[in-house]
Amino acid sequence: MKRHILLATLTVLAATSRGQESPANLALGKTYQLEPTPDYAHCTDAGDRAQLTDGQYTQGYFWTQKGTVGWAGHSPIIITLDLQNAQPIAGLSYNTAAGVAGVNWPAAIFVLVSDNAEVWHLAGDLVALSAKASRPPESGYAVHRYRTLDLATHGRFLKLLVVPTGAYAFVDEIEVYRGPETLLARPVPGREITDVRAFFARTRIDASLRRRLESDVAAVSESMKTAPLSETVARPLATQLEAIAREIPSVEVASPENFTPGKHMEAIREGIEDFEYLRMLRDRVEALETQGVRNSALASARKLLDTAADRVTACMTSSALIHWKEPKDRTVADRVRVEILESLTQLAEP
Ligand SMILES: [Ca+2]
């Protein structure tokens, strides 16, 4: 008896010393279905049918290992695990790699649970849930395990809808974590889904947009750490960035086929194009000035260069804070753009 108590104590101590211990992995050794059939040349093999739940993590460059399962040119990738019995589920993990060779991190991994593989309940987006604890690096090759223990659901079947960013999707192991038995008596949380494909069509645009915006916020935040900004400039910017991060909306697109860019997106794109036109004009003016050219067209172009940006931004009440949700008068911006193009035409080589 004493020996049993000692063993139990040692087990608890060992678990504690290893830090964050995962609960039992319900997926280990279980069967699953893959849609479509994996087809990435360097890792596809007959073992793909069992490798995602064999408890083995690949070693070495991720997508050239036979133990990895990979797809090229498909979206979504649907992985449906059969846990054989209704199980209490506290979380899951999905191990993947990206960062080079055109392989990007997934935009979303929607997790659905079901008892009958017909009526599903949305448990969440593993990419978003996992981001609370850690994110993959913004650049460079890395292996990353998307992981959450924030679920409180149950089901026999677990479906992952992986939305790749770009062409590729790779995974070598999926774990599903057992939750407390009491979960089984509770109603399954999350919205009900019977048509998984239709659900995917409606939500993937939203997932892609949110990931893009979150990634941009993270990139700006990272740049601000090293930018030579005074405290008086940096602090309001940081506050504004935090507000933007909190405001990133989740929008279900009713008819994905009618999805078009919003006015804000168009305005941002036009702003970038205006910047490019101004650079073209600046380069042309400087080249002609260096050649010693003197004429009225060049003088007008120089004046336009010096005043264009201020004329366009004069309509903003505060140039430090661009309130992008408020409507703006685009008349001046449109007129200045035409003037720049006319000026470029006048200064074009004969
Ligand atoms: Ca494996």
Describe this structure in words.
With 350 residues, this protein is of the alpha+beta class. The protein folds into three domains: 18-193, Galactose-binding domain-like (Jelly Rolls); 204-258; 263-346. Helix content is 38%, strand content 21%. The protein is built from seven helices and ten strands. It has helices at 2-17, 126-131, 196-226, 231-247, 263-290, 296-313, 331-346; strands at 31-35, 69-72, 77-98, 108-114, 120-125, 142-148, 153-163, 168-171, 173-178, 192-193. The strands form two sheets. Strands 1, 3, 4, 5, 6, 7, 9 and 10 form an eight-stranded antiparallel β-sheet that branches. Strands 2-8 form a two-stranded antiparallel ribbon. β4 and β5 (120-125) form a beta hairpin. α3 (196-226) packs antiparallel against α4 (231-247) and α6 (296-313) runs antiparallel to α7. The longest helix has 31 residues, at 196-226. The radius of gyration is 27 Å and the shape is elongated. The termini are far apart. 26% of the residues are buried. The model is unreliable at 5-19 (pLDDT under 50).
Task: Describe the SSE topology.
Elements: H1 2-17, E1 31-35, E2 69-72, E3 77-98, E4 108-114, E5 120-125, H2 126-131, E6 142-148, E7 153-163, E8 168-171, E9 173-178, E10 192-193, H3 196-226, H4 231-247, H5 263-290, H6 296-313, H7 331-346
Antiparallel strand pairs: 1-3, 2-8, 3-6, 3-7, 3-9, 4-5, 4-7, 5-10
Helix pairs in contact: 3-4, 5-6, 5-7, 6-7
This protein binds calcium ion (CA).
